[in-house]
Amino acid sequence: MTAGPALMAVELTGPVTAVNAVVLTFNESLDPATAQNVKAYSLGHNPAQISGNSFDLTSLLFRKTNHPTPAVAHPRLVVAGRIVFSSAVYDDATHTVTLTPLAPFKAQNYFRYLRVKGIGPDAIKDVNGIALNAGVDTESRWFLHQGKTVRWIDPQRNHVTLKLTGPGKMYVFLRGNKRQPAIFIQGATAATTLTGTVKNARVSVPVINIAEIEGANGINNGLLNNPNFNVFVTTP
User: Fold this and answer.
1) What is d(CA 102, CA 99) in angstroms, rounded to the nearest whole number?
2) Cβ neighbourhood burial of 232 (10 Å; 0-12, 13-18, 19+)
């Protein structure tokens, strides 16, 4: 029996203050019906209220209005600390699922905890009917660091430093194991420079994998030609 599909990468699109999509990449073809079920995904900052059981958003999806008449249903963009997604679109050519929120959201507020279901009625399955991770939920956590300089020590004891000089601010989302950070640059101009250094490495040329750099269009991006950094995705 195979292990089933696995989540390989997570990418946010749009500026840090207005993320308009979350793209999940898997390692194999998925069953489209399960992949496009929005109930299979939870993203937010309140993991204590996220369980392995299916969660029905029907009664919580709309907020009440004080306007007397006529009654108008206003969609709730966040429920129980989690983003409400309007759709999940699967692309078999790239093995990706694109989650679209009801409205753009602030990554610094909600890009904290992701659960993709591998158990229960909303579990994601591959084309052979095998559930995600052979029947185990995938959970990922990110921790936000922001400012002109961000430092961390990765699992290999590499001391990593990112510096932003000139206009703009840097938001760095580190996964729980301090791997593959997502970097967002806000307010940058052509006078902005992003650089990185790695010290105390145990190998001659350590490589730090960067999941994505958003908002770096037109800046002097020193990470792209630095052998110590491997950037998977760069977007404007």
Assistant:
1) 10
2) middle
Across the strands, what pairs with 194?
A: 164, 221
- CA–CA dist 211, 204 (Å, integer): 22
φ/ψ of residue 53, rounded to 5: -80, 155
Q: What's the whole-number mean pLDDT along residues 120-139?
A: 96
Residue-wise pLDDT for 183-192, tens only, equals: 999 999 999 9
Confidence of residue 1 (pLDDT cuts 50, 70, 90): low
Do 157 and 117 belong to one domain?
no
Q: Are 148 and 168 in contact (CB under 8 A)?
A: no
Give the confidence band of 59 by pLDDT, cuts at 50, 70, 90.
very low
In whole angstroms, give the CA distance from residue 188 to residue 180: 22
Q: Are residues 154 and 114 in the same domain?
A: no
Strands 138-147 and 169-175: antiparallel
Which of the listed residues 142, 168, 184 is the one where a domain comes to its end? 142
pLDDT above 80 (res 136) = yes
